[in-house]
Design brief:
- With 233 residues, the chain is mainly alpha-helical.
- It has one domain.
- It contains seven helices and no strands.
- Helix 2 packs antiparallel against helix 6, helix 5 runs antiparallel to helix 7 and helix 6 packs antiparallel against helix 7.
Length: 233
C-alpha cells in the first residue's frame, strides 16, 4: 500500500487541521526570522568593511568629528553605530569642564551601554526560533493524541478492532508527529547557528571598540600632558 499524504490530510478532523496549521505558521515564522537575520548580518558585515576602510585613516589622523559623521553614513553597520556613539560621548565629555569622571571613563561606559543595545538588536527574533524549537514537538504530540482519539472513535463506530477501523487515525497521528519534528529540528539548528554567529559579531565588536578606547585614552593622556606643560610654563 502506497503512502498518500493528500488522502491523509483530506481525512483529518478540523482539530487536527488546526494543529497542522499552527505548525505551518511556526515553520513560516522560523524561516522568516532566519532569512531576516541573515540579510541583516550580511548588510552589517558589508557596511562594516566599508566603514573600516573609511575610519582607519581618520583614526590615524585623529579626526574624531569626521569619524562620527562617517559612522552616520552606515546605518546598517553595528560597528559604525558603536564607534559613532563612543566618539560623540568622548567629544561631548571633552567639552565639559565639570564632572568626576574623565572623558575616557564616560566613553568606556557609553561603549558598554551601546554593546548591550546592539546585542539586543542582533538577537531580535531569536526568541521565536527558541520557542518554535521548544514547543513544536509538543504541538505535534498533541496532534498525535488527537489522531489516536479519532482512531478509537473509529473502533467504537464500527464495533470492530480491525486495522481498517484505525488505520486512518493512526496515519493522521503519525503525520502530525512527523510534521512537529520537521518544524522543530530546523528551528533548533537555525537558532544555534545564529547564536554562534551573533557571539562572533559581539566578540569582534568588543575587540574593535576596545582598540578605539585604547587610542582615545592614549590621545587624551597626551592632551592632558600638553596642558600641564603649558600651565607649568
Amino acid at each position: 500500500m502506497s503512502f498518500n499524504l493528500g488522502h491523509v490530510i483530506a481525512s483529518m478532523s478540523p482539530l487536527s487541521l488546526l494543529i497542522a496549521g499552527v505548525l505551518l505558521v511556526m515553520a513560516i515564522l522560523s524561516v522568516g526570522v532566519a532569512v531576516e537575520r541573515w540579510i541583516a548580518f550580511y548588510r552589517s558585515g558589508r557596511e562594516s568593511k566599508r566603514f573600516v576602510a573609511m575610519a582607519a585613516p581618520l583614526i590615524d589622523e585623529w579626526k574624531l568629528e569626521e569619524l562620527a559623521k562617517a559612522g552616520d553614513q552606515f546605518k546598517n553597520s553595528a560597528l559604525a553605530t558603536l564607534f559613532a556613539a563612543v566618539v560623540r560621548r568622548y567629544l561631548r565629555a571633552s567639552e565639559e569642564t565639570e564632572g568626576r569622571l574623565s572623558p575616557v571613563e564616560l566613553s568606556r561606559n557609553e561603549s558598554e551601554r551601546q554593546k548591550e543595545k546592539l546585542a539586543a538588536e542582533l538577537r531580535r527574533g531569536l526568541n521565536v526560533l527558541a520557542t518554535v524549537g521548544s514547543i513544536a514537538p509538543f504541538v505535534g504530540l498533541l496532534g498525535t493524541v488527537v489522531g489516536i482519539i479519532g482512531a478509537f472513535q473509529g473502533i467504537g463506530a464500527t464495533g470492530s478492532g480491525g486495522i481498517s477501523a484505525v488505520s486512518t487515525g493512526i496515519a493522521e497521528a503519525l503525520v502530525e508527529t512527523a510534521f512537529g519534528l520537521m518544524v522543530a529540528i530546523p528551528a533548533v539548528i537555525l537558532f544555534n547557528y545564529l547564536s554562534a554567529r551573533i557571539a562572533g559579531i559581539e566578540l569582534a565588536l568588543g575587540r574593535s571598540v576596545g582598540e578605539l578606547l585604547d587610542e582615545v585614552e592614549n590621545h587624551h593622556g597626551r592632551d592632558t600632558s600638553k596642558q600641564r606643560k603649558r600651565q607649568a610654563a
